[in-house]
Design brief:
The chain is α+β, with helices and mostly antiparallel strands. It is about 40% helix and about 10% strand. The chain has one domain (about 5-70). The protein has helices at about 5-10, 15-35, 65-70, and strands spanning about 45, 60-65. A two-stranded antiparallel sheet has the order 1-2. It starts with a helix and ends in an 11-residue tail after the last helix.
Amino acid sequence: MRNYKGEYKNYQGTAAQKKNRASRNAARSTLKKSGAVKKGDGKDVNHRNGNPKDNRAKNLSVTTKRANRSFPRNSRAGKK
């Protein structure tokens, strides 16, 4: 059985993770205000330069969840 309280206490509830989550929420809010994304649309906000703290409009794009949450793989199914 998954220990959600333990996960939050040890990882998700740390100050660094709270800042990261707030930054991701701010990025989505920016694109939501512009009309690029909607609640429940199945899309993710992508940071083009890979820095989740850089929420300038030119660094944000809308992509599918699958494309944004995956990573390049090599022939042995590991990260490149």
